[in-house]
Amino acid sequence: MEMVNRYIYAVTQKLPQSQREDIAAELRSLIEDMLEERAGAGDISDEMVNEVLLELGSPREMAQKYRGTKKYIIGPELYDPFLIVLKIVLISMSVGLGIVFVIESVLDPANILDHFVSFIVTIVTGFPQALGWVTFTFMLIHFGGGLKADELKLEKWDPTKLQPIPHPKKQIKRYEPITGIVFYVIIIVLFAFSSNFFGIYRFSDAGFQQVMPFLNEESFSQYMPFVILLLAIFIVKECLKLISGKWTMKLVAYTAVINIFSLVVVFFIITGPAFWNPNFMMELVQAGLVTEGSEGFRVVESIWVNSTKIIVALFLIGLVWDIVDGFIKARKD
Amino acid sequence: MNEKEHIDKLMLELRRGTITIGVLSQLSSPKYGYSLVSLLEEKGVHVEPGTLYPLLRRLEKQGLLESKWDTNEARPRKYYVLSEVGQKVFEKLCVEWESIVQSLEGLITNKGVDKNGDG
Description:
Order of helices and strands of chain B: HEHHEEH
Strand content of chain A: under 5%
CATH superfamily of chain B: Winged helix-like DNA-binding domain superfamily/Winged helix DNA-binding domain
Largest sheet of chain A: 2 strands, antiparallel
Helix content of chain B: 55-70%
Distance between the termini of chain A: 69 Å
Radius of gyration of chain A: 30 Å
CATH architecture of chain B: Orthogonal Bundle
Structural class of chain B: mainly alpha
Number of strands of chain A: 2
Shape of chain B: globular
Domain Transcription regulator PadR N-terminal (chain B): 24-91
Protein name (chain B): PadR family transcriptional regulator
Structural class of chain A: mainly alpha
Largest interface: A-B, 18 and 19 residues
Strand content of chain B: 5-15%
Radius of gyration of chain B: 18 Å
Number of domains of chain A: 2
Helix content of chain A: over 70%
Transmembrane segments (chain A): 82-103, 115-143, 181-203, 223-240, 252-276, 310-328
CATH topology of chain B: Arc Repressor Mutant, subunit A
Order of helices and strands of chain A: HHHHHHHEEHHHHH
Shape of chain A: elongated
Keywords (chain A): Membrane, Transmembrane, Transmembrane helix
Largest sheet of chain B: 3 strands, antiparallel
Oligomer: heterodimer
Strand order of the largest sheet of chain A: 1-2
Distance between the termini of chain B: 38 Å
Number of helices of chain B: 4
CATH class of chain B: Mainly Alpha
Organism (chain B): Ornithinibacillus bavariensis
Number of strands of chain B: 3
């Protein structure tokens, strides 16, 4: 009877506490009935127990039938976009890692084998992480949308309330958010490896010479979590666009919240002390790309000095435009 | 998928709905789980015990059945019986079932030939 005890335990373990005792007692009497019928007047053998338990089905299936409802992390209605986003993220992550591999091989061709090994290792360790984050993101979307789905069910079906086919300009073409996600994932991968990848590359006839990074490598590690957070938020925004498929006021509202928040984060990051490479101009001069005191030097220097303002301005324009554009499109009908 | 697999799959869907009616039909008097399995089996309705037991519980939760533990016998057993609501629901279901049988009868015996067609 040990097997029967184990079976009952396995089933009830997967059920709510309040029902366990009763189901266990009932299941036991039912199994005993089944065994008794098989054994007749004789003894109950192990084979009979085995047979009965096989007939009842695995504890998991049994518990599921008792629960009656299926539990989802990601509901069926979100499963398709989930798969799309997952594919995009995994593919673009591979592309990003490929780019890292190429850059590292160019920077340091002597250790190309090491770079290749780390490329493979990162793919193996990175895929589960990416899978985890995508799933987590969709769990949140599912959780947030769960209430909405119930409301829809309660509403009486009324053909006159069918949503009009969105104006062509209102529709979000799938490639737009997909391109966005690919772009952000690749940027995340590059940042995750080294902030030095962002800079000016100098090549001579002999091949690669050096890279003059834009960012301050020593202090960048402090900014790193915020940069990743920012890019992750952008990816969430693209996911929402992909799921929605058209501009709605709700989507505009989400976009506005996300964009305003990211603008604050960008401002905080970029104006922080020591974000930029303090020796950038000096490195340019040393590399012989510009001569100190020349016209070119002054132009480059004025751009460099004002780069914080320029980038904040570009972000401001871009993110505000994103909201305005969405708003205009959402109003079309 | 071969022919048999198709049939198995469709039969599974078909049975799922009919089992409930079959179960309700036998519960005018109290029965316990395994006695129902045997009873239905005798009458040619095959139900997996693994399907029946949870079904009984769900019907009870929905209020169609009532249950009572009988601890007088050697083995305590949970007996299920139609509730008042269950009785009414069952009667209505039977009417619905009859009409389904009739309509399908008409469809199957005519085998898609439209009597009132353009002939």
